[in-house]
Amino acid sequence: MLSRRIAAARPLAKTIRLTVPRTNLVQTRCISQADIDDPGMNGGYINPPMEKRQFRDPYGDWWDKQERRNYGEPVHEDNDILCMFSPDEYTHFKPAKGFALLSCFVGAVFTLCGVVYLYYPDKPSAPREFPEGLERELGGQGALRARKVGERQPLESDI
């Protein structure tokens, strides 16, 4: 397959052709009578004002309580963006105030971490001491050794 492609290969000069630049044709749009009669191009449909249903009165006497619309009310062409199931618009406070609140929270967390770092004890103030030390408990020279398989259990007097 590769050998056929090599045999059919042409010199580079024959494959590259000079392209003559064409004149740029400008497409002009003519306004027709249909555009003048129907500027929204929606067949004369009455498009209500763009109002998000989130901002309508929730206690109003709506035919559809969930969508906050009445029976026979025309639906906006961008209903998927304006309906109750679209993401809510966050209007609690402005971005500057939100940034100030977030920076106060981060500052308070770092301040708390600094205070804990300064006053958290790394080690006890006085090391703990035992009357006879922990040599026997930690397996030192006087500690009781573990039995091997087949070895008899040591008596109290052996210790």
Mean of residue pLDDT? Answer: 79
Looking at the structure, what is the overall shape? elongated
C-alpha-based Rg, rounded:
43 Å
Tell me about the largest β-sheet.
none
Q: Separation of termini?
A: 90 Å
- Low-confidence segments, given as residue ranges, are none
- What's the total helix number? 5
Query: Regarding quaternary structure, how should these chains be classified?
Result: single chain
**Structural class given helices, strands, pairing?**
mainly alpha
Strand segment tally: 0
Helix content: 25-40%
Element pattern in H and E:
HHHHH
Strand content of the residues, in percent? under 5%
Concise overview:
The chain contains 5 helices and no strands. With 159 residues, the protein is an all-alpha fold.
Topology:
Blueprint: H1 2-7, H2 12-15, H3 33-37, H4 79-82, H5 95-119
Describe this structure in words.
The chain is elongated and about 120 Å long. The chain has 159 residues and is mostly helical. The chain is built from five helices and no strands. The mean pLDDT is 79.
